[in-house]
């Protein structure tokens, strides 16, 4: 791993001319331990601006796939290219910077800071990415940009100004998590079952709002779910089983 690459992370991503946002080639990753789990993906591509739904049952490896895609874990074999950058060539710290610069992530449990305000939560990634901070600042004062984004995603302005994050409903938490992923216009939005706690109507409304924002920024969106009924909201639907081979137990080789 070359530390000298770390300084180039933002520039590499920004200047990359690859037609794909993400491409996997002959990737293999193993969770080792007493019951090893291996996920092998021969070929996968996410286009720039594409909205992709990745379906698979519980335990099939969807979160592992997203962790690979976002560089949270690195494959033992193969190559993952994101916005023209070979993720394996970045050090761990450089990958962390690359992730906050280019990815907005909506986690399954949202991972909000309970004691921060709604606006503090939305602005969090901007503390770690100057590019995203500068992009957000181009739209106005940061508190105003965060407030407008939250309002666009359906949170009442009085709630934004006065509510405590710890007291928000699940639907409101989801919107704060989405605003945090979208602020500063990262190129790839990753969402790990963010609608699993919502009813059908709220779910559809949320996805429409999310896509209006991601579309305006030209971002790609990849969302994983086990819920096939969400397919109609996306450009493409992929079943994890069709692109990946999951193996449990030790592999003989
Ligand atoms: N942090 C970890 N440490 C060790 N093994 C893990 C870890 N995370 C996942 N695994 C292994 O990978 C398998 C697939 O898990 P993963 O979370 O990727 O599936 P999933 O499809 O996202 O499941 P769910 O829909 O329930 O969230 C698990 O059954 C487990 O064996």
Automatic annotation (TrEMBL):
UniProt protein name: ABC transporter related protein
Signal peptide: none
GO molecular function list: ATP binding; ATP hydrolysis activity; transmembrane transporter activity
The keyword Disulfide bond is assigned to this record: no
Residues of the ABC transporter domain: 22-253
UniProt key word Transport: yes
Pfam families hit by this protein: ABC_tran
Alphabetic keyword roster: ATP-binding, Nucleotide-binding, Transport
Species of the source: Hyphomicrobium denitrificans (strain ATCC 51888 / DSM 1869 / NCIMB 11706 / TK 0415)
Any one Gene Ontology cellular component term annotated for this protein: plasma membrane
Top-level lineage group: Bacteria
